[in-house]
Amino acid sequence: MTTHTANALCLGLIINPLAGVGGPSGLKGSDDTALVRQALEQGADFRADQRASRCLQILQQRFGPLLEVTTCQGVMGERACQAAGITSVALLDIGAEKALDCRPEDTRAAAAQLRDQVDLLLFVGGDGTARDICAEVHEQLPVLGIPSGVKMHSGVFAISPEGAAEVVAAMMSGELVDLREQEVRDIDEAAFREGQVRSVYYGDMLVPQCGHFVQATKQGGREVEELVLDDMAAFLREQMDPDTLYLVGAGTTPRALMNELGLDNSLLGIDAVLDEQLLASDLTGPELEALVAQHRGDVVAVLSITGGQGSLIGRGNQQLTPTVLRRIGRDHLWILATKSKIRELDGRPLLLDSNDLEIDRGWSGYLPVITGYQDQILYPVGTHFEHQDEPEHKV
Q1: Rounded to two decimals, what is the model's pTM?
Q2: Three-state secondary structure of the chain
Q3: Domain ranges of the chain
């Protein structure tokens, strides 16, 4: 992995400095501040900061200025970034200088702020920290945990700080990194100390993972495109909301959804679907602007990419004018592509050319790409200008 082939990443970081303090003392957790103080009196050490630095130092050495970190003041992130030599750091007005002054409320407040500011939220802690972050983030932002707690029953953690660094490095290098829902679970510490295990489910979060290139649908080790498209269409139909207006874009990949719905498709145009019914076909830009202005619910664009070129917006779908795109919003894009088509890009970002520089730059970053049934990857998106030079991430 080398810096010149990497994509800029805006990374959020939250450290629970108390995570793991109770482990060596056999206290079965670190949620109880009184027990944490007891562990410290018995000689326990703070370990979260050091584990964060192990991950951050690897990323700093590999990617340098391409790594942008937004984190909390003091021991909740700032200090670890300084130790790792990361210079591009933005600070939230959250955090404390002393670990014992940090509270779960600080973690939740930081997660709420970072939710709309970063591409990936990296956190250091255990199940209690994961619970606090899940309460604010849910499935709205990819997260990855650096394991540092006593309890880590949730499926949101890397196997080690170094493992977390490898996942982030794979994302920045344009590799195929799967994005999957994983459970957040925690146990009752008081009951656990009495020998009773009570695991409780608190929700799901999206977690990037370095998975296999081809997962469920394959033949002879290669993707079978027709089967992948059928799976993709079945998954999309399950996600559709009757009150949401869907603008199904040009190309054979979105056509699979129209076939699944039993609807006619213009193939090279933009069709409008509401409650699984076709409202209009092959709409022009002005027609789309009028339609989305009248619709009171959400609007979702179902888009594919141009094979080989990687264009997402601006090649074959110029009917999606800046006015229409603003009405849709960055978070309401359903981007469809087979993993074979993504792999052909060789790590190059998907390209935006909306004829509005503010949209192109504002929508750059990392977005989920639907690659099959319940199968997504996180992939970089940028402008044509950024692709020609050095990628630049704008939030």
Answers
A1: 0.67
A2: CCHHHCCCEEEEEEECCCCCCCCCCCCCCCCCHHHHHHHHHCCCCCCHHHHHHHHHHHHHHHHHHHEEEEEEEECCEHHHHHHHCCCCEEEEEEEECCHHHCCHHHHHHHHHHHCCCCCEEEEEECHHHHHHHHHHHCCCCCEEEEECCCCCCCCCECCCHHHHHHHHHHHHCCCCEEEEEEEEEEECHHHHHCCCCCEEEEEEEEEEECCCCCCCCCECCECCHHHHHHHHHHHHHHHCCCCCEEEECCCHHHHHHHHHHCCCCCCCCCEEEECCEEEECCCCHHHHHHHHHHCCCCEEEEEECCCCCCEEECCCCCCCCHHHHHHHCHHHEEEECCHHHHHCCCCCCEEECCCCHHHHHHCCEEEEEEEECCEEEEEEEEEHHHHHCCCCCCC
A3: 3-209, 225-388
